[in-house]
Amino acid sequence: MTTLPPPSEKKLGLVIDLDTCVGCHACVTACKGWNDQGYGAPLSDQDAWGPAPSGTFLNRVHSYEVTPEAGVAQLVHFPKSCLHCENAPCVTVCPTGASYKRAEDGIVLVNESACIGCGLCAWACPYGARELDQAAGVMKKCTLCVDRIYNENLPEVDRIPACVRTCPAGARHFGDLGDPDSAVSQLVAERGGIELMPEQGTKPVNRYLPPRPKDRLEETAPLAPLLDIKATGFAGWLDRLLDRI
Amino acid sequence: MHPAPSVILFTVLSGMGFGLLATLGFGLLPVTGWAALLFYGVGYALAVAGLLASTFHLGNPQRALRAFTQWRSSWLSREGWASVASLLLMAPVAAGAVFMGRLMPVLGGLAAVLCLVTVLTTSMIYAQLKTVPRWNHWTTPALFFGHAVAGGALLAGLGNAPVLLLLLGLFMALSFRTGDRRFADRGHTLATATGLRGGAVRSFAPPHTGTNYLMREMIHVVGRKHALKLRVIALLCVSVLPALVLLALPSGLVAIALAAALHLAGALVGRWLFFAEAEHVVGLYYGRR
Amino acid sequence: MTRHEPRLETSPKVSDEVRRTTCYMCACRCGINVHLKSGKVSYIEGNRDHPVNKGVLCAKGSSGIMQVTAPSRLEKPLRRVGPRGSGAFEEISWDEALGIATQWLAPLRATAPEKFAFFTGRDQSQSFTSFWAQAFGTPNYAAHGGFCSVNMAAAGIYTMGGAFWEFGQPDWDRTRLFVLFGVAEDHDSNPIKMGIGKVKARGGRIIGVNPIRTGYNAVADDWIGITPGTDGLLILSLIHELLRAGKVDLDYLARWTNAACLIDETEGEEKGLLLRDDLGKPFVIDRRTGDAVPYDTAGVRPDLGATHRGCRTVFQHMAERYLDPEYAPEAVAARCGVSAARIRSLAAEIAEVAFNQTIEIDQSWTDFRGETHEKMVGRPVSFHAMRGISAHSNGFQTARALHVLQILLGTVEVPGGFRFKPPYPKPAHAHPTPHSYYMAGRPLDGPHLGFPHGPEHLALKLDDQSPARIDKGFTWENPLSAHGLMHMVIPNAVAGDPYRIDTLMLYMANMSWNSSMNTKEVMGMLTRKDGNGEYMIPRIIYSDAYASEMVAYADLILPDTTYLERHDCISLLDRPICEADHAADAIRWPVVEPDRDVRGFQSVLVDLAGRLGLPGFVTDDGRRKYRDYADYIVNHQRRPGVGPLFGFRGHGKDVGRGAPNPNQINAYISNGGFFAAEVPDAAKFFKPWNRAYQDWAVSMGFYDTPQPYLFQIYCEPMRRFQLAAEGYHERQPPDHLRDRIKATMDPLPIWYEPFGEEGATGYPLHALTQRPMAMYHSWGSQNAWLRQIHGENPLYVPTNVWEAEGFKDGDWARLSSPNGAIVVPVAHMAALNGDTVWTWNAIGKRKGAWALDPAAPEATKGFLLNHLISELLPDRGDGYRWSNSDPITGQAAWFDLRVRIERVDPPDQAQPAFPPIPSPVPPAKRNRP
């Protein structure tokens, strides 16, 4: 079980558009809300109203600053959750088989009833995608809302992960990255979608669309004046302008 | 990485225990009767105590038996199998020595090999992790192996123990040094972690102002400023001081006990550093390692 | 061993039931699906059918479940038993609470209604609360717009009949260039995010003009890190560039604006007013004939270049002003912190998209003059702005400058540009004027708030011309204060200036904490006593659902429900949820019943109105007319056939106008909690001048007759105040305000230095606040999920200051202003204007409030900038301390703040620190769930 299945044809995952994410954290709490009552144990919060609140979240939004050598700095909001790697190191390290990758669609899941809570899978993950719930003692992670995307009790349009459904800016896309013709694959191809930390060899399924080049306003040429107002005076300017009607 | 007492005790105690059992199994200290009871007893006690300690950090220890299922892929599962197998296989050897005064070199040798395999599987739990470059290197199994061998020799009071301890010390120093560079050598940066280009990338704000499991578990920066001091203490206690004690004091249980106590203390400090100084790549995302 | 996966239930039942209602976290008011399991809320998501959010939901909305279960929820009515501020209360019954309130209020109504002041903070039912206050008869009512964004709202209404957020929005489906000024988060939060997503997906461009590059500015393709308070200057410089190049929409200006109207230039009491015909209609010169004709004459071609008896057009006055070299990019660059080259490029890009990338919709329409246009032609440049540019003492004129810029480009109410949301557009003259005449035992003479057209509409007492309102709204100090000045109520009442009051009633307004300038002083004012040992404000009634900081400073607490336990209506009479293509309104209804002894505040007001016998709330024989707020929502009629909700009227089919329908609320519930009516295709653009729209608006009940109008580039009402200051009005301003009125009430947009600059010597930096998106406008700092995201707030410092002061991560600083000093943690930010520091607002909490542990980071590391801001400016040597507000509207000038910073050793907690207040609710449990 802990061995990885042969690479699936279907590779479900997320494409996250860093050029569009405004950092609103909607995906963070929508995920928390759905998964607090969905798959497996609730996502507990310790010291919830106290001096050091700390809870389990399956999706968190970082913020980075990129300062070019010349020009103004940029801010990039960076949501991060499980990337459902093809070479998922979190799966192979698991001693109990609780951590597994679905052969059918590539989703990486934790079978909580088999999880001993050793934490090794979280250590093996380069992306910080797994958090050990302090109340349940089991490893929690993004399930890609496996209890939504196939859920026949939901209208078809809602069979997408909670984070994607809620994202106001539409910066999150869900689909089959194994199918080169899928909308998400097309998006990745068009926008040069990237893998995170490729040097780890994890082959993540999720892709990030990098921010588009920014701060090029000065490349626009200034407007040409109608005429030399100093020479013609205001009346000359007005004549020239109104001639055009 | 968070230097949890449970994993420090686990790796240090079980390593010494399996090291001593391996020494005994190979017949390097051919004891029988009460002496055998003492040495095998210490070996078993350390190994079992270490294994028990390892369960303290589990979220659901009642399911621990499930950890035996994934030996095909998981070093942690293999470690479980190897430790149980070596303890079981060593049992008749120990019983023979204690109760029947008989040595069983073939079976003992086999069990001893298994003990060392156990230590290697333990080390591989850490060495396999690409996410922790300091560990992800042949020096990690070598270090664990060295600790087991030298620790076992020390506890068994073997004459070559001082030499082995000094060699271990040298190797520890070497692994400290080479470990320091490895994160950088692997080329993991915030830029590779985020894929962001076009300038210097810096963490502006963490996702939450509070802490979380990942930060507590994998971003341990407390006490690192004392690292150099602690390294010296670890080296002295693991290696130099016990070797001096063994050389200076008349051989016997007193010398062994004193040297072993020093060694154990040093090994605990060294193992604390092994964790505390290990930087997980996830720290990049948080702007601190 | 073969690989086998555990059996997985991929189709679990989601919930027992879904109830659809409306979110309450901010002014966005999205539709939500509330899932219930065993009668308890289990999950909240956006409602896909809802016109506002179309299924998406922000971080606050998605955390609503933590709001409904928060340990800080008040549980019972409370009466103060210890000194005010001590937090000593006893629980009382509702009967007792309402009895006390009646006992306090009835005599006031009978003798001196102005001694009762009613101000609401987070209120989404202002048409109801103002109606209530009007019936009571007090002139002292307003909501929180005065310390929020009245500059933007009022400037928009005076200029073009509406501003941004619930008044209008960019044409997200068509705009190609979106320019965003001064916004962190916004009232229109989800629609803006959805819109930005749409623009991005189409490959459109976004330009952010903001000292701080977070949020929307972070995704902007270009960021202009302007110096705070100079946006107006930048905008006028853009206008200079556009005019110089002739890049303005002359046809649009001539047809739809007062640019072709003529300004009287003869000396006297009419100087500067528009020339009018005998019927009082402004006239224009028809280019075809040269004749002076009313602006709305069929077929007229108004001449922008006309001169009539020595009087020139608005256009000429305007162009002459802005072509002046003082507005050239070089002249403003240093002041704005933006290079002249960038200003020029910005103007050029705007012009390129507006004039070279026009778009067309194949839809004919007929204008108010009767001319039919074959197509709807648009200029796909759109703008949005909010508090960032308006919370300055030059904010009104700056907001007006931005509206005029849009008008010059011809991009308002055209495809790809800015679009109004019904019931807007609605010009100032179609709104009420302010009313403030009160008589004992009688209702007020009309609605409190409105839009003055001249000094005759000021809220001044007829006898001595002193302010009629406690907040001095609509006085010479701030004549156009369309939203009142809630931030001045407590200081004025305590100073007895203009008079003392007896009872102050507040709803969801944290005046003893983050909603007041000068927080510490305000706490002192609330507890100050006069010579007789009576509190300066003798009685304070407060309603809130949560144990906010304000609770301890009230005498009677009326605990409100959470948003899922109440009836509400988001009404077209008020601040509706319309989108450009839809008129829409919505309700809230109790999707769960309260588990505490609390009541919705509006229902409590209905009850109190019955006890007080307020007209409109009782029948002729004095019996209560409405059982509760739900009953009012269904049966109240503001005008015959027009009530709080416009859908399902009459027998359930009538829209807009119709008799009350007893099943209306159930019909709304079945429809998902809202009702939407689509604007007809021919009416979707050019609304102020479009016959099809005007007729549709009348049929919807927005107004009773078509109201076409011209955009007011030249704002005549402002000129009337100038004329008064010049001596031409029977109402005369006090002498010390004359010069200021002449200078600031310019009928064409101007820029002047924010007043805060005067005392800024030695305070080189600007200090700003923003609300984080995950908390914007929400009463949710106690939210167990959100407080993990923002549990403390550093002061962000730009690189140059960071390096000059030698700051390192983890350092603290003392931040000083002319009003005081705070000691706070700092953090480095490169994407920040070099003269600006900022922090997240309202993260800091008082110890003991919100059921948080006194050691919570909100109370130990979180902080407010409010301590540094005074509601009064320093004495200018003339003996007067002017309000720290915009001189036109009175909007609180939060962002005029100037500071200096220095590194200090870390204290044990942020300074100033206040002693804990005892919590009126039991302590929270440790963990969740």
Automatic annotation (TrEMBL), chain A:
Which PROSITE patterns did the record assign?
A: 4FE4S_FER_1, 4FE4S_FER_2
Gene3D superfamilies recorded for this chain? 3.30.70.20
UniProt-listed InterPro entries? 4Fe4S_Fe-S-bd, 4Fe4S_Fe_S_CS, ET_IronSulfur_Cluster-Binding
Alphabetized, the UniProt keywords read:
4Fe-4S, Iron, Iron-sulfur, Metal-binding
| Pfam family of the protein (one) | Fer4_2
Domain (4Fe-4S ferredoxin-type) ranges? 12-31, 73-104, 106-135
**What protein am I looking at?**
4Fe-4S dicluster domain-containing protein
Species:
Albidovulum sediminicola
User: What high-level taxonomic lineage is stated for the organism?
Assistant: Bacteria, Pseudomonadati, Pseudomonadota, Alphaproteobacteria, Rhodobacterales
UniProtKB/TrEMBL annotation, chain B:
Annotated Gene Ontology MF terms?
A: oxidoreductase activity
Keyword annotations of the record:
Membrane, Oxidoreductase, Transmembrane, Transmembrane helix
Q: Where are the transmembrane segments?
A: 7-28, 34-59, 80-100, 106-126, 228-249, 255-274
**EC id:** 1.8.5.3
Question: Cross-referenced PANTHER family, in alphabetical order?
Answer: ANAEROBIC DIMETHYL SULFOXIDE REDUCTASE CHAIN YNFH
Please report the name of this protein according to its UniProt entry.
Answer: Dimethyl sulfoxide reductase anchor subunit
What organism is this sequence from? Albidovulum sediminicola
From TrEMBL, chain C:
Cellular location(s): Cell envelope
4Fe-4S Mo/W bis-MGD-type domain sequence ranges: 16-72
Taxonomically, the superkingdom here is: Bacteria
Where does the record place the region Disordered? 905-929
Q: Which InterPro entries match?
A: Asp_de-COase-like_dom_sf, Mopterin_OxRdtase, Mopterin_OxRdtase_4Fe-4S_dom
Q: Which PROSITE patterns match?
A: 4FE4S_MOW_BIS_MGD (PS51669)
Q: SMART domains given for it?
A: Molybdop_Fe4S4
User: Could you confirm whether the keyword Iron-sulfur appears in this record?
Assistant: yes
List where Pro residues composition bias occurs. 913-923
The entry assigns this protein to a family as follows: Belongs to the prokaryotic molybdopterin-containing oxidoreductase family.
Name assigned to this protein: Molybdopterin oxidoreductase family protein
* Organism whose genome encodes this protein: Albidovulum sediminicola
